[in-house]
Amino acid sequence: MKTLTMLLTGTVLSAGLAVVPAHSQGSTGDASPVEQVEGQPPAEGDQGIPAGEPVETAAANAPDQEPAFPGQTRAPQPSEMPDVAVETFAEGLPQLWAMEFLPDDRMLVTAKEGDFHVISAEGEAGPALSGMIEVASAGQGGLLDVALAPDFETTNRIFFSFAEPRDGGNGTSVARATLNLDDNGGGSLEDVEVIFQQMPTYDGDKHFGSRLVFSPEGHLYVTVGERSDTPIRDEAQSLVSGLGKVFRIDPETGEAIADNPFVEHAKIQPEIWSWGHRNLQSAALDADGRLWTIEHGPRGGDELNMPEAGLNYGWPAITYGIAYSGEEVGPGRTSQEGMEQPVYYWDPVIGPSGMALYDGDEFPSWEDAFLVGGLVTTGLVVVHLDENGEQVAFEERVPLDARIRDVRVGPDGAVYAVTEDPDADTSAILRLTREQ
């Protein structure tokens, strides 16, 4: 491992390296010709933000929009923040999208172009695993998330999401496979089977989502995007479409869970759990086993939700932030009867990607906080919930000077963050520990 010439103290963490530019075009590479890559680099901000003040100091893209309740945006920093040391754990990797720790402390990673690799406990990458099926990797497509089956230690089964090439276009799909690894850092996927397809198929290259999270009961949550373009994105508001949804499925059959909210409605897709979402690239369970997600907003309006069964989260009928053109999104509303408010939102955006609940010993002050990869803020965003676990109490930033695509807590309690350089099609994995 190579130690970076970087030591991030609690003082430095609040010092503006993580401030987002007021001119940010949004976090997700929408269909606008202005911005085809997810997120934009941050601008320098004010220095020396004191504890107790919001870490975000840049002007909002939609300054006339008001939060629906106190604390819905720009939460204060906590009074104490850890000193963070950063080292490079692995480098020279293909452009990655997700990572998952295996029981033997190795990592299974997904490369956007369509390959799985295993990273050893020493940070060395093995060859691409054989047996992988074809993916549509153009634009924001590719091999996306990966999750180990709850019974992985006895079955070796994994689940993964990917942009699937189809007749007439593509779409987000979920497959499962058996993972067989050898002693040389390689291996294969066997019995690969697609168990779920987001429908309808669409000929585009944006907003595929997607994260996979197993519930405490063993059900599989699948998050997807609404495919970005107008008017197809409007199908996020349609219950006969699978665009802009969270699904809950049986990992054995790929079918809806029996008590899903719409299983009794013949014309509604029964796998739908919640709807009215934009581009969901962050998802994790909290300490109580509840699903939380963060979706990319337009130019402003990234939002944190705890999706509940059958509820409508508004996109694109309501949203915070504005369109890439600078105009209002649709009717320009931030609220509407029958649509849910986000628990929290960011304007300017953070560019949310991978998300993990911290449950290790390395960073006691982060216990039960969400760690979120920032594509725009180029670092980690640490979200602390209040004592009831219902609202955001504090937010802090850990600048890493790199787009962060995924975040995981290692068996050692350290935090591992996947960086990406889409221009060079490369990634590295950083390891974060508490400075003693």
Automatic annotation (TrEMBL):
Residues 1-24 form the signal peptide. Pfam families: GSDH. Residues 23-81 are annotated as: Disordered. InterPro entries: 6-blade_b-propeller_TolB-like (IPR011042), Glc/Sorbosone_DH (IPR012938), Quinoprot_gluc/sorb_DH_b-prop (IPR011041). Gene3D superfamilies: TolB, C-terminal domain. Coiled coil: none annotated. Keywords: Signal. It comes from the Bacteria. Residues 95-424 form the Glucose/Sorbosone dehydrogenase domain. Transmembrane segments: none annotated. This is PQQ-dependent sugar dehydrogenase. It comes from Aurantimonas aggregata. The lineage of its organism: Bacteria, Pseudomonadati, Pseudomonadota, Alphaproteobacteria, Hyphomicrobiales.
